[in-house]
Amino acid sequence: MSDHGRTAATPDDARALAQLTRSVRARCPGVPDEAITERAHHVYQRYARAKVREFVPLLVERELVAEFRAARIPRIAP
Length: 78
Prior knowledge:
Elements: H1 11-27, H2 33-46, H3 56-72
């Protein structure tokens, strides 16, 4: 699995990203690993300047799970 050339800012960030991607994989088993990894890095980077970092992994995980679950909901044509 590739990390798409991205690195986490700190070892804590790297651990948090690894943990949250494992959790999202478990909660969204039909989503390809590459998609989870790509989106996790992208969303995590949006919080790079957050002053309070404690909740960043939780926020990222919640956003990813909501995004992937919403993508699986069948759309009803108008």
